[in-house]
Specification:
Shape: globular
Mean pLDDT: 94
Helix content: 25-40%
Number of helices: 10
Order of helices and strands: EHEEHEHHEHEEHEEEHEEHEEEHH
Strand order of the largest sheet: 3-2-1-4-5-6-11
Structural class: alpha/beta
Low-confidence stretches: none
Number of strands: 15
Length: 345
Amino acid sequence: MKNALVTGITGQDGSYLAELLLSKGYNVYGIWRRKANVDYGNISHLKDEINLIYADMTDLSSLISAVKISQPDEVYNLAAQSFVASSWDTPLNTAETDALGVTNILEAIRLVKPDARFYQASTSEMFGLVQEIPQTEKTPFYPRSPYGVAKLYGHWITKNYRESYNIFACSGILFNHESERRGLEFVTRKITNSAVKIKLGLQDCVELGNLDSKRDWGHSEDYVRAMWLMLQQDTPDDFVIATNETRTVREFAETAFRCLDIEIDWQGSGVDEIGVDRATGKTVVKVNKKFFRPAEVDILLGNPEKAEKILGWKRNVNFSQLVERMVKNDLNLLSSRNNKIIKLK
């Protein structure tokens, strides 16, 4: 039976990865930070099946202790300050966790369990101002946020430890992936949650930033499977995980509202653009300039051909299914809380 250590286990990806590893018979250890109030996040349903260890990505000694306790065969580093917008407000904290934190966990592995296999959660945000479309493992990086810059350090230090210390270390360059467990601060979950509230009469409209931003969206369940596959190979390598499809924020909103039988007509342009409910004439989407990034990433589109060929990876959840699952989940949550019953077709 293998041991796996997962950082960021209470998050979206961490919870899906924990479920996958448990289904494959792993002993799963998770790192979490000590808080005044215990918060299991997305793993409340798994808390009796996994072993939780208090540690912090900015504290090397605690990570060394975690590796000694878990004796992992595989380490998955998913811990991060993962909200791009916040990285401009907290650039130093983002760097300490997303950049230096990767060095800390790699050092802990090197000192305690150098035969452990390591996965680093890299990101499409490293491409930023994209140099080619679609992006592949060979596309030059051009990050456009403190988050993207910090993640790029984490990506390269992983490659450096692989080449310097012969550690089996892989990076997954994951494009945007969402799920029912996505935090409300992320635009995708903000859209689905707000659309449901509007349908239930609990909210008037939702304010969004750049509606023309294009992203390559998949489901977290599919993407954590790719993480696991990377560590089952004979040779460590880096892989783009994506759908090779791009959609605008506008399209995501349209799809979410359509799941609730609300068709949107768009009027105006730029910061004055609004989305109107075709049936009622009510404005349900507005643009707010405060949600624009200081440096915009206009389009992300990944080519997963290498992962499909070498890992045998394929996504199972398409874009429409992803949005529908998120909408249905928010509808179930909000309907039960507010004693309102609405069934989707």
